[in-house]
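re: ur question from earlier - yeah i can do the single chain one, its not a big deal. heres the input i used so u can compare w yours
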Amino acid sequence: MLSQIQRFGGAMFTPVLLFPFAGIVVGLAILLQNPMFVGESLTDPNSLFAQIVHIIEEGGWTVFRNMPLIFAVGLPIGLAKQAQGRACLAVMVSFLTWNYFINAMGMTWGSYFGVDFTQDAVAGSGLTMMAGIKTLDTSIIGAIIISGIVTALHNRLFDKKLPVFLGIFQGTSYVVIIAFLVMIPCAWLTLLGWPKVQMGIESLQAFLRSAGALGVWVYTFLERILIPTGLHHFIYGPFIFGPAAVEGGIQMYWAQHLQEFSLSAEPLKSLFPEGGFALHGNSKIFGAVGISLAMYFTAAPENRVKVAGLLIPATLTAMLVGITEPLEFTFLFISPLLFAVHAVLAASMSTVMYLFGVVGNMGGGLIDQVLPQNWIPMFSNHADMMLTQIAIGLCFTLLYFVVFRTLILQFNMCTPGREDAEVKLYSKAEYKASRGQTTAAEPKKSWIRLPVSCKPWAGSAISPALTIARRVYVLHCMTCHKRWMTKSLKSWERTASSVVAMPFR
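and the output i got, formated as tokens:
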């Protein structure tokens, strides 16, 4: 069950990859329309420069204005077991059909459902326009649910054999036909239940506003600590792309009001307090540096050049584009304690920044979000906030370094380059393999080989246990009739004096 949830959460990440570039385009376009940066003449609506920038900006809004459709079509790429392209087609048709059903039922029986479909689809109405269809504003939540239902139908029915005379309806057509029928009750249930969900979302938004710094800490902590499970997508998704904090999601709301915020002299926290729920990217920028420095200075002197060669690219990747997997899964692989401490420090950093008035859309790295969507457009009127953010971030960089260095030395952890530890970083796949979470595509047995010299019990009375462990291992191999028994035994003979090897299924 957990693996299925992880797969679903991972599939959600496919559409998310489209947002960094779109955000950069919109952010730079809005910056080029600011007279404080380019002058009054270039921002004149009649100038060719302003017209070209406006055209480019409109293209950048494509992803933001069609988020539900993009999430609906993008999920089957990761969820469909076969023919992913056909699954995307079936989902798109079914998603539009579902919205047409909602529109028709709402226009016909709107009074029964308590929804006024005669009003314009504006903010606060509960309605929206989706591909020219006036429908309920279910944001990405409705899109994800419908996409999941249709993808499940695709996985179950795509290969179903029909009688010869119905062969034309086999495959994708059959999936769409069944989905068409399923969308009728789905639309009915949506109209019946979603208005109540909208009231619940409004209550949640009010609670989060009142929770303040505590809400920011809990949100950021959960977003970090759940990364190994893949469930963190369900934490940040409703906030960044859904209506959990603000209507339309923080990503879209921030982009829509970027020019307004950049021209205002009021504190950003008073203009957009919900921006505290998008500060989790600061741990990728400032925390990554402290973690890498701790690993570097705890490595053996003769290995530091090799360690630097690994850590510098990984740190730059985390800082610039917000991809932290090489770093995070390395110390998660070695010690979950370090990862838990990382989650606490990341949450504390976001909370302290929020208390000092730092808000924005900073869930990514420097290139994709922080610079084009925050620092550059906001510099003219909010430079003091940025300096505060940098100062707090550097303090936490130092705190990360001190805490990680202390823990690594205190518990003698085998981070890259320490004593006999291998100089390498670990991936998510290697971490899952070590935890026995191998997939069908990865049936091989994974081995974690930890040098005895890096263990707290090195040189103690535990050494004779190697002999006992070897004998138990022999019996295990003979019982299971493993073909690799001889090779494994030789490996034990050769390394028993210096290596503790444990097989993980």
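The chain has three domains: 2-211+227-250, 257-410, 445-504. not sure if urs matches, ping me
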